[in-house]
Amino acid sequence: MINSKFDNAQLILKQVMFFLCVIAFCSIIVNPYLSVKIFSIAGAVAFFIALKEWRKLKNSDAKWLCLSLLLIGICDLFWYSLFKDSNSPAINSYRAYLEVGKICCFGSFILYIVSLNNKDTKGFIYTKKVHYLAALLLQIMMIGYTVYQSAYLGAPRVTLALTGGTDATGAAYTVVFLSIYIILVLQHLRIKFRELLLIAHFFITLVILVTTETRAAILTYPVIIFALLIVKIYREKHVPWKILTVFALVLLTGVWMMKDSMIQRYNDLNNDIVAYDQNNSATSVGARFAMWETGLIAASHNYLWQSTDQRNAIITAAVAKDPSLRGALDYMRGHLHNEIVETISTKGPSGLLLYFMFIISFFIYAYRKLNSMIMCAFLVSFISLGLTGVMFYSKTTPIAWMLALIMSVALLVSNSKDKVFK
Predict the structure, then answer these.
(1) Residue 383: count of CB within 10 angstroms of its CB
(2) For 325, what's the count of Cα atoms within 13 Å in the CB-facing half-sphere?
(3) What is the pLDDT of residue 125?
(4) pLDDT given at position 2
(5) Do 293 and 406 sit in the same domain of this protein?
(6) Which Pfam families match (predicted)?
(7) In the prediction, which pLDDT does 164 show?
(8) Whole-angstrom distance, CA of residue 390 vs CA of residue 114
(9) What integer pLDDT is reported at residue 17 of this predicted model?
(10) Does residue 240 belong to any structural domain of this protein?
């Protein structure tokens, strides 16, 4: 009798935890900072549930993925506690690692709980209707924010609820991860015009990404979606020519509608590369090249860990020797716009090892355990966007991909018997 009551209480806690995740997920577009706070509460609930469920860890399909996230989070928190300096000009860098450390720790507990595929995890909150509603709300909010900021306010770059021109990049990353989740949800719909909804979603997302003017997302997203389409055709042994034709027309229409913005970004890219060849790194692209080069210089003797200030001192010295790298000076107080370079320049080989552990465990879980090509696409997006940005840094981008990952896993685990392309 006591065990029965305890199990019921534990089931209620799981439902509360997941319900909080749903609320946090649906808040990302309008207020990602509120989303982080709600997510933290859900993570605290998940921690207490995990204490009871720890015996199931050995048999959990997601144990290595959860462990890698937990280790990354713990290392970030330790790094922050060792090197934080309230008087540092790079104080925001230290706070960024504090925030992402907490998100990774809480995320590891939540992911572990939702990945458990047993009767105890079933309940009203795990039904597909919750995911349908979440996907619909997110899509409406993305469209609404984009129309409001781009058409009504005339903003040069759509930033969603984020502020500042550079946060358009964070908005683009958020849209990519949310789009992959929405595609996964749409694949579970059992309606005749599902493919048309998928194409409409692709078109809308592509337009939104173009309005953010984030080159990495604009280039990465259509390639990944096209790759998914090819894999879907291969697996189903059927070539839907009508769908392919509509897809091509939608892609061309989207490119044509936003051609002026895309041409401008393309010209900016060429001009930045020409300037960099002329030893001028004080441009958007040139600064990234300079950051990567100086970041690797700073990492060359970082065998354990070093603070952001220590790294920046090395970068400053490198720029003094080679003034053509001065573009790095404007950004070094934040991150270095590359996941690997940023990680190895602060947390050294151990940080890089944990990053690769996360990537490998993610792939094994997505491909071998979930048998999901869409989750593999999620991972490819994560890696691709990390080439010119950072995924384990600050709040806004980590909370977006973390919640998208958790919600996707919850959908796949609770509907594992559905015979759909996933």
Answers:
(1) 15
(2) 19
(3) 58
(4) 53
(5) no
(6) Wzy_C
(7) 46
(8) 26
(9) 93
(10) yes
Residue 249 lies in a domain: yes
Residues 61-76, buried b or exposed e (16+ Cβ, 10 A)? Answer: bbbbbbbbbbbbbebb
SS3 of the chain: CHHHHHHHHHHHHHHHHHHHHHHHHHCCCCCHHHHHHHHHHHHHHHHHHHHHHHHHHHHCCCHHHHHHHHHHHHHHHHHHHHHCCCCCCCHHHHHHHHHHHHHHHHHHHHHHHHHCCCHHHCCHHHCHHHHHHHHHHHHHHHHHHHHHHHHHCCCCCCCCCCCCCCHHHHHHHHHHHHHHHHHHHHHCCCCCCHHHHHHHHHHHHHHHHHHHCCHHHHHHHHHHHHHHHHHHHHHHCCCCHHHHHHHHHHHHHHHHHCHHHHHHHHHHHHHHHHHHHCCCCCCHHHHHHHHHHHHHHHHCCCCCCCCHHHHHHHHHHHHHHCHHHHHHHHCCCCCCCCHHHHHHHHCHHHHHHHHHHHHHHHHHHHHHHCCCHHHHHHHHHHHHHCCCCCCCCCCHHHHHHHHHHHHHHHHHHHCCCCCCCC
Judgement on whether residues 306 and 252 belong to the same structural domain of the protein: no
Question: In the prediction, which pLDDT does 126 show?
Answer: 65
Q: How far apart are CA 378 and CA 388, in angstroms?
A: 17
* Residue partners of 267: CB distance under 8 A and separation at least 6: none
Domain carrying residue 190: 2-264+349-414
pLDDT of residue 165: 42
Q: Which of 106, 116, 7 is nearest to 54 (CA)?
A: 116
- The answer on 319 and 175 residing in a single domain is no
pLDDT value of position 19: 93
Mean pLDDT split into 10-residue runs, the chain, 422 residues: 64 89 94 94 93 79 94 96 89 93 96 76 68 94 90 80 69 95 91 85 90 87 89 76 73 72 73 75 81 90 89 91 86 89 94 96 93 94 93 92 96 80 72
The predicted pLDDT at position 124 comes to 52
> What angle, rounded to 10 degrees, do the helices at 32-53 and 2-26 form?
160
- Predicted local distance difference test score (pLDDT) of residue 55: 76
pLDDT of residue 123: 54
Six token digits for residue 335: 């991150």
